[in-house]
Automatic annotation (TrEMBL):
<protein>
    <submittedName>
        <fullName>Uncharacterized protein</fullName>
    </submittedName>
</protein>
């Protein structure tokens, strides 16, 4: 019986630790899940060929457009591009017009 109580106690502690870990990993609800960015041209990285050369598709838009981008999909940001994940393990490099410092502020950095 004592072993059963010890096991039950360990299970309760483990469940509490898992719950605490999940709580600590939750995002702050006040953080934006999406940011609005003005984008124009973009590059889709489809993958690599047999020679390990990138397979890219360049898309030129006529006019800049406002777009909501999921913060969770952003992989990196440079002064010219926002790299985001895309369907089927592809990446998109969005050319953006909002300015690097403005974008950092939108991301809370």
């Amino acid at each position: 019986m004592k072993n059963l109580k010890t096991i039950a106690l360990f299970l309760l502690i483990a469940i509490g630790l898992i719950s605490l870990s999940s709580f600590n990993n939750m995002k702050n609800p006040s953080e934006p899940r999406f940011i609005e960015v003005t984008v124009s041209n973009y590059i889709i990285l489809h993958g690599f060929d047999a020679s390990n050369k990138e397979i890219e598709e360049y898309v030129k838009d006529q006019a800049p457009k406002k777009k909501l981008i999921s913060v969770d999909r952003i992989q990196s940001v440079s002064e010219k591009y926002i790299c985001t994940t895309y369907a089927n393990n592809r990446l998109i490099f969005w050319e953006y017009k909002d300015g690097y410092e403005n974008l950092k502020q939108k991301l809370g950095l």
